[in-house]
Amino acid sequence: MYICKKKNMSTLPVYHKDVLEFITVAKEYILFLDNFKEEKKKVFVFKMQKFLTLLYLKASLIPEVENIFNEGNERFCTEELYEAIKEKIHKQLRTNDNEILLNYDSQNVDEQEVVCVSEILADIYQSLFDFLNLYRIGTEKMMNDAIWECQQDFKNLWGKKLIAVLNIFHQLLYEDLINENDFDTETKSKDKKTKKNNWFTNMMKENE
Question: Does residue 2 sit within a domain?
Answer without folding.
Answer: no
